[in-house]
Amino acid sequence: MTFNTFEEEQSHKDKRPVSHGLTGWIRAKFFQPPQETISTLSDELDLEEAEEISRVGRYLVVEKIAQGSMGIVYLARDPYIKRDVAIKIARFPEQLSQEEVQKYRERFFSEAQCAGRLNHPNIVAIYDAGIHKDACYITMEYIGGPTLKKYCKAKELLPVTKASEIIFVAAKALDYAHRKGVVHRDIKPSNIMITHQGVVKITDFGIAKVDSQGEGRRGLVGSPCYMSPEQVKELPVGEKSDIFSLGCVFYELLTGKRAFYGDNYFSILYKITHEDPVPPSHLRPEVPEIIDKIIKRALAKNPSERYQSSMDLAYDLRVALRGLKEATRRTKMEDVVDYVRQVSFFETFSREQVQEILMASNLIKVPKGRVVVSEGEIDDSFYIILSGKAAVVKNNNTLATIERGECFGEMAYLSGQSRAATVVAVTDSILMKISATLLDRAPQSIQLLFLKKFAITLLTRLAKSNQDKA
Description:
α6 runs antiparallel to α12 and α12 packs antiparallel against α13. Strands 1-2-3-4-6-5 form a six-stranded antiparallel sheet. The protein has a four-stranded antiparallel sheet with strand order 11-18-13-16. Strands 12-17-14-15 form a four-stranded antiparallel sheet, with no helix packed on it. The protein is of the alpha+beta class. Helices cover 38% and strands 20% of the residues. The longest helix has 26 residues.
């Protein structure tokens, strides 16, 4: 479901009873009983005419299978490739101006643009997009299985282990999207599907935001019960917003109850920003304490207190799953290798190389505000941020903020001199600390990869410094 801005509501005032002023808008928006969807493009589609559609482009329409926030979805057949596909189609009402039609058309195709740049086994694939007569359509991978909505009912709850595995896979898929610059912004049970083979698939990127789009659409966007506090406050949203929404889905998948629920939108949004849900174990005793802690962190009101990446969430879920299962084929080292290889610094390293580096390094958790290295100290170690943010400070001035995938301390290692600045953790962080002495004993191929990364880092920082001066 998508909330529009006050201005967007005014453009549709002929479609519902007029209520003048901001008070009327608030009443209509927040004090009506919650619904699965409110006025969206799919509501504006002429449903009777839509039912008569038999062909879209080269695709043969078989039947209507769903109605989403941005259109109606049909099962169709590609006669050339001989495969089933899903087609999402939207036609716009005749009374809209050309400018409004163009605006909605761009919004509709944003899903194809967002999801089209993603190629991941746990994200629904986009095959095609186009305009058929006066309608827009997107052709995508057909998933015949149910959504997670089916398993959020009290009588349909999955085992704790299975629910955790699903969220673990979804978290890794979201991490991939985030690293590609795409924030979903509408994670909810009906947007996560399970194929008949048991494969998790994230779908519906209709209101997703891409980095290049800036802040994207203004106004409340998302589905009320799964919105993050920053979405409710209409603040810019990033990957931590998706983490909050996924935490809401996890909670509901375990308990059959929504983490934040109320009689109207206002009460739901108030709870999201002011109240914490009861721990899942209070509603379902077999949920272990570690899962309670994971959900509590995912649902933190302050984004800086949440998991700093979806991969951080996935890693903790993997630890929890190891405890939930009586036996596991994977070792802890393999889990850590997977975690580290998701960090951009190590994207060119092989699994074997990452494993060797881990043997010569330490992973440390650093709380927010802790000084990691101090100006003037002599130390040949350097650090890579696996999670969180840190500030580079000199003479009480912050020179830069560095994030996941970046390194610091490498200049002391390369020059053999004392630290030139102080580095402080801005958020709770996970760092890889590497001793230069141990790295010097590593194979030459690994040393060369590090030197290449250091060179790229120096050039990037130099270019940014010159840009700031300009």
